[in-house]
Each structure stands twice: as structure tokens, then as C-alpha cells.
Amino acid sequence: MKTLDQYNFAGKRAVVRVDFNVPLDADLRITDDTRIRMATPTIRKILSDGGSVVLLSHMGRPKGGPDTKNSLRNLVARLEQEYGTTVRFGGDVIGPEAAQLAANLQPGEILLLDNVRFYAEEEKGDAGFAQKLAQLGDVYVNDAFGAAHRKHASTAVMAQYFTPENRVAGYLLQSELDNAHKVLTNPERPFTAIMGGAKISDKILIIEQMLDKVDYLLIGGGMAYTFAVAQGGSIGNSLLEADKVELAANLIEKAKQKGVQLVLPVDSMITDRFANDSDVDVAGNLDIPAGWMGLDIGPESRETFADIIRQSKTILWNGPMGVFEMSNFAVGTEFVARAIAQATAGGAFSLIGGGDSAAAVNQLGFADQVSYISTGGGALLEYMEGKELPGVAALEGR
């Protein structure tokens, strides 16, 4: 796979697939610009070489064509601020306007085209659509790691319309792969994985993969209650995947067989209703009263998790420990984030696995105290699960 530093973009027009799927508020203002900032080194490299840039991205899940909320026009002002130059905007990615604007680009200029998902052909991976996109430039750069697990036209199909020497991985995509590879293949020990979130069903494959790699596997979040039932516990109204109880029991047994310390919460912060201003108490994870639900790991679990994390040398975290969006149930997630920051300061390598984990680290103020925060929750999970990422395979000519 060709990397950015192996390519001179002088006089070249680069079609760059970025992931600018950033959240907007009701007034269409960007509330988190992380994905924009992470793509900047790639854009700057192309421009500094003397190339020009055509930016392609998706945003949201538009239905039935263009709409104002999901238009990339909303990003132009922020991009001009980021790059310190004018960013031209073309509304239709495959129309004559886009083709003309792209053809007229001069070295150092940037063109942003509108949401590729305004066309149903994008998500269908339509070859004809991909070929039209490919005509916008001389070289294809994929820097959209967050969409690399999608076999869409702009992420996995259009690469075939460029010669192998003109298919290039951007800095962000390369960095994501390098950091994930480091954790998977050469972890310094002890290696601890922390898995949270609502459902075991979302994390089955990565949990099974981790059982072959880690020394400690810490389980928190809503999925912990399915494990509690597998241990014979009572969980009140806590989240339960009843059809995954047997699977949870099997995972506990597999961990024992492989010599992995599978650490489950022993207590929970519980409440009688799903609200931040509700009554809160502490209960054992196997003895949550009827009518109550666990929404965060409890005090004893926090300390146990933090102690294990602080003595770890490699850390992978994917999924919060509770409903961290509510301040009363964010304490467990904050404990984990702080412990990871402390371990990192002590020389550990920490990889935060995108999605809610990345949001939590940013929200709680620990973003600059961990080794790497992935921009691609789903893509990182699939890579960790051992699946081929279509966006990466396309760059490699597969």
C-alpha cells in the first residue's frame, strides 16, 4: 500500500476521500471538529507538494437525495479557517459543475464537493458512480478510516480506476492501521482490554479475539448485566440480552481456559428510573433489587478496574462503563479514563477505540493524556476482529 510520503503531488489533482461526518447542532454548527482536524496533515502535504485537492465525504444518513442538514456546505467556513485559504464548493459530486470546478483547480487550491450519500449509488458500491468520481482527479487518496469498513463507491470501489501507483493511503488512515497493528501484534505486557457499552452482541467477536491476546479483560457498561445473569445473579430492571446469557457463560469459561483474568463489576450505581435526577444507590452486581437498574459500575469496581489499568503496559478501551452522558452515572467512565491517563504517563501505550469511548475521553478532558484516539469505532472494531476492511483492501489492489 503506497503511503503519502512516497508520493509527490506536484501538479497533481488529488481526489481525497475524508471522513467529515461531524456532528452538527440545530443551527447547523459543528459541535466536534475532531475528524476535520485529523485529516489536515494529509491535505497540507498535498498542497505543500504543489498539488490541488478535491474533497469527498459523507455526512449522516440522508434519505432520498440532497437535504440542508446533511450538506457539506455547512463545513466550508470551518475548513477555510482550518486551511487558511478559500475552499470552493461544488454541489453535485458527479454533475458537470463538479467536473468543471475540478478541471479548473490550480496547484494549492481546494474543492469540496457535496455529500456522496446524496446518491444511493454510493452505499450500493455502484461501479459506474465510482468511475465518475474517479474522473475528478489524477490520484486517489483514502484518509477516511472511519468508513474503511464500508464497501461503498468512494471508499472501496473507485480505487480500481486508478493505477496502483496512484492509489495512496492518507496519514490518518495509515496512523490508525499502525496503532491498531501495534496493539494486536506487539503489545507490551500486561495487556489490558476494557470493553463497555450496552450489548455483548456488538462486541462478541472482539471479545473472543482479545481472549487470545490479553492478560486482563475488564467488562463494564450494560453488557455486564448479561454476564451477571450468567453467574446466577439478579439484576432488577438492568439491561439484559436474554438470548446472550449462555454466550456470556461460555466467554467466562473460555477466559479461564486461556488463563485470562476476566474481571466483571462486583457493584453498581443503581437507580429506580432512567434519569439524572433520580434516586441513586449502590448494590452488588448480582443483587440488584426489583424495580432498580444499574447504570454505572460501583465504587469497589471502579477501584479494582483502576488498579489493574494503572499497572498495565498496553491498554485498549472500547465502550463506556455506564451512561456517561448523565453526570450521576459518568463516574465509572471517568475513573477508567483517568487511570488510562495515569498509566500512559507512566509509559503505557493506550488506544481508545473510537465511538463513545472517544467521546468520553474528549468530554472528560483526557484526550491529550492518552496515546491514540481512533476516529473509527466500527472500522477499528472490525479490524481488531480480524476482518478485512474493504477501503484498505482497495488500496492494496485486492
UniProtKB/TrEMBL annotation:
Top-level EC class: transferase
Please state the pathway this protein functions in, per its UniProt record: Carbohydrate degradation; glycolysis; pyruvate from D-glyceraldehyde 3-phosphate: step 2/5
Q: Which GO terms describe its cellular component?
A: cytosol
Q: What's its EC?
A: 2.7.2.3
Which residues does the record give as substrate binding sites? 19-21, 35, 58-61, 117, 150
Give the Gene Ontology MF terms in alphabetical order: ADP binding; ATP binding; phosphoglycerate kinase activity
Annotated residues that bind (2R)-3-phosphoglycerate are located at 35, 117, 150
A Pfam family recorded for this sequence: PGK
Q: What is its main location?
A: cytoplasm
UniProt-annotated location(s): Cytoplasm
Gene3D superfamilies referenced in this protein's UniProt entry, alphabetically: Phosphoglycerate kinase, N-terminal domain (3.40.50.1260)
The protein's matches in InterPro entries, at most eight in alphabetical order, are given as: Phosphoglycerate_kinase, Phosphoglycerate_kinase_N, Phosphoglycerate_kinase_sf
- Catalytic activity, per the record? (2R)-3-phosphoglycerate + ATP = (2R)-3-phospho-glyceroyl phosphate + ADP
A biological process term (GO) from this entry: glycolytic process
What are the protein's UniProt keywords?
Answer: ATP-binding, Cytoplasm, Glycolysis, Kinase, Nucleotide-binding, Transferase
- The entry's ATP-binding residues are 203, 294, 325, 354-357
Q: Which PANTHER family match?
A: PHOSPHOGLYCERATE KINASE, PHOSPHOGLYCERATE KINASE 1, CHLOROPLASTIC-RELATED
Q: Which HAMAP family match?
A: Phosphoglyc_kinase (MF_00145)
Q: Please give the family membership noted in the entry.
A: Belongs to the phosphoglycerate kinase family.
- Subunit architecture: Monomer.
Q: What is the protein name stated in its UniProt record?
A: Phosphoglycerate kinase
Q: What lineage does UniProt assign to this protein's organism?
A: Bacteria, Pseudomonadati, Bacteroidota, Cytophagia, Cytophagales
